[in-house]
Amino acid sequence: MKLHSKFSKIAGGIALAGLSFAVTPAMANMPADTVVKATGNPIFTHKYTADPAALVHKGKVYLYAGHDQAAPRHEGYVMNEWLVFSSEDMITWTEHPVPLAPKDFKWASGDAWASHVIERNGKFYWYSTVTHATKPGKAIGVAVADNPIGPFKDAIGEALITNDMTTDTKISWDDIDPAVILDDKGQAYMFWGNTILYYAKLKENMIELDGPIQKVANLPHFTEAPWVHKRKDWYYLSYAYQFPEKTAYAMSKSLDGPWEYKGILNEIAGNSNTNHQAIIDFKGKTYFIYHNGGVQTDGGSFRRSVCIDYLYYNKDGSIKRIQMTSEGIKPAK
Ligand code: FUB
């Protein structure tokens, strides 16, 4: 931990050895680790956080989120950076200095949309949606770091996916929301898309495609936000369904499909037209991490906030519908 991490910046003040005092402008700008304690859902109220992706590594959960920075009543995404938080119990979170921003991709013009971080061979790969500076539309870049909190650096120097690589739809935002998983043999797959769900294998270096871009067929009302996880013999593909978005899911024995649609997993999340999920196992429980627009008084579709609730399976491997709560979860032990 850095020297300044002995400060805990909480709700506009600093707690140090039991004392608290106001944050001066200079202190507010310092890249301190900030400790935030969740008291229910949403888990963070000191800033808006969206599009959660989570990684479990060495006894901690690393939570990656886009920073919703739209001013109150502004109707549109303003997202200039991603954020990273870590926790040993999913209640007390440490916010680390900003690990990555679209400006770190020299070929991108902005928009820190949904992303996903995965570890392979001791390196951490961050797949990020951004707007491409010269090719029309959204694109996916890859950044890499030696540890889960970064700082991350562009791993390629150009986009991994650009809009002109997928021509099935005329929309310019179909190449968004990457989700990456390794199968049991170590083959990496990346899923992404809006309206159409694409997937492709990645080479072991994690920064090149390993084969053609393919499409997942027969997923009803696929909008965006794929997340793929495995439990026992089953792969689960959850995704944002319709718009405003619910979350639905499908199951398969193979990442190449066929995927069997299983139904709605989560309802529309309060006060937000998007509903972007991550699913992880941690200390014996399964967690459904998503965002809503629930922070008063300015929360909404462009000022979203991450929430966490439990996810439970049925005996046959299907998933029980998520119960969104305002109380949230208990400390993971
Ligand atoms: O945050 C911008 C976009 O909204 C994400 O890429 C989508 O998943 C949706 O949440």
Name every ligand kind in the structure.
beta-L-arabinofuranose
CATH architecture label:
5 Propeller
Could you please say which CATH topology applies here?
Tachylectin-2, Chain A
Instruction: Return the domain count.
Output: 1
Radius of gyration using CA atoms only: 19 Å
Tell me what portion of residues adopts beta-strand conformation: 35-45%
The largest pleated sheet is described as:
5 strands, antiparallel
Any idea what the CATH superfamily is called? Glycosyl hydrolase domain, family 43
Describe the oligomeric state of these chains in a short phrase: single chain
Shape label: globular
Stretches with pLDDT under 50, minimum 5 residues: 1-28
Overall mean pLDDT: 92
Number of strands: 24
Q: How is this structure best described in words?
A:
This protein is mainly beta and 333 residues long. The protein has one domain (34-320): Tachylectin-2, Chain A (5 Propeller). It contains one helix and 24 strands. It has one helix at residues 25-29, and strands at 8-10, 13-16, 19-22, 34-37, 48-57, 60-68, 82-87, 92-95, 108-110, 115-120, 123-132, 138-145, 153-154, 179-182, 188-194, 196-202, 214-215, 222-231, 234-241, 246-252, 260-266, 278-282, 285-292, 305-310. Strands 4-8-7-6-5 form a five-stranded antiparallel β-sheet, with no helix packed on it. A hairpin with a 4-residue loop joins β7 and β8 (92-95). It is globular and about 45 Å long. It binds beta-L-arabinofuranose. The site of beta-L-arabinofuranose has 13 residues, from β5 and β18.
